[in-house]
Automatic annotation (TrEMBL):
InterPro entries referenced in this protein's UniProt entry, alphabetically: AAA+_ATPase, P-loop_NTPase, SLFN_3-like_DNA/RNA_helicase
Highest taxon of the lineage: Bacteria
AAA+ ATPase domain segment(s): 41-179
Name of the protein this chain belongs to: AAA+ ATPase domain-containing protein
High-level lineage: Bacteria, Bacillati, Bacillota, Bacilli, Lactobacillales
Amino acid sequence: MSSTISAATFKLNDQAALSPAQQSLEHQLLTFIRTHRQQKQPSLFVIHGDAGTGKSAVLAAAFARLQALNRSLTPNDLQATDNYLVVNHNEMLKIYKRLAGEDPVLRKKDFQKPTPLINRLAKEHRQADVVFIDEAHLLLTQPDRYNRFTGHNQLTELINHSRVVVLVFDTRQVLKLKSYWHSNDLKPFLDQYPHANYNLDEQFRVTGGADVVDWIDGFTRGQLQPKPVSDNFDLRFFDDGQPLYDLIKQRDQQYGLARMVATADFPYVVNHGTWYVTAGQLKLPWDKVNLTDDPWALRPETLNEVGSIYTIQGFDLNYAGVILGPSVGYDEDHDRIVVRPERYEDQEAFKNRTDLGDLRPLKQQIIFNSINVLMKRGRYGLYIYAVDPALRQRLLAL
């Protein structure tokens, strides 16, 4: 296994670690930047791909290559350019800044959250040369006072202040109404600007092959398929949360990077005491607010906590123990997974929108998206406990 950091996040070793498809993408990206950087209007390069297809890995590798050319003492066409990598995700930003400390061509200031960068570029009346956006589906699509964003769409603002924008986009990882993107919401941007699209479809995280990925994909569309059998991937269902947690602790001791995670179905208020996740006999605290520079999954004490979609999105684990809370149920008449937004405890995710029409199907999709994010964390194993008794029995019957 590679170093703890690369194993815990996205593969960020060297050029040899990139697949042929990723190397091709990196080459196309830099060619696109060279071609479009001097043009009068902004240009967009969009990378599509499901969770675990290596989008962040190739984005980080391409950005490091760009900054190496930017800071090179040898004259070249990308020397002395003004470039940033943006991500609207605190835990992923920590990883990028940590990597910057290990790479001589990167600086911590190269990595930003979107609102501070937008506000600074606007105040200074200037354009960046290239802005990379990881997890662009987390960008806000409405004003947000809490985040000091007064515009209407963060992608619009970043395009307005950049010559080239490179963005990673996956609508199946949208987790909040305030950053809700429909699958065709990029179209107006692509119609307006010169652009290129690239689709990464090779699964790098989940080692169980297509059968395991298809099973998870089916589950997040409400379908229950027969349990896949894989020599490379340990998929198990549990009748109680305690033996699941005992196995996660054992896996962490054996291989490292095994953690418990759960859907946002258990009450939690930031900075108001300790809040718990319950799964049968198991009772563990939710993850605490992380004020350290170390991402949640890399801190040993978090083996005794339950992570959320917000602490684990974008990261690799070796083994993931997933607790499906009360919002995830089972319809016996139709043999389908159902989700119940009224049981979902993440109030921030469902803050009201008046511009999106009927919100119930969008809320249901957000819950399915969160399940997709959680179930695709583990490289070598996925262990599942369902709080809903009917769903639990149906899973055990698989």
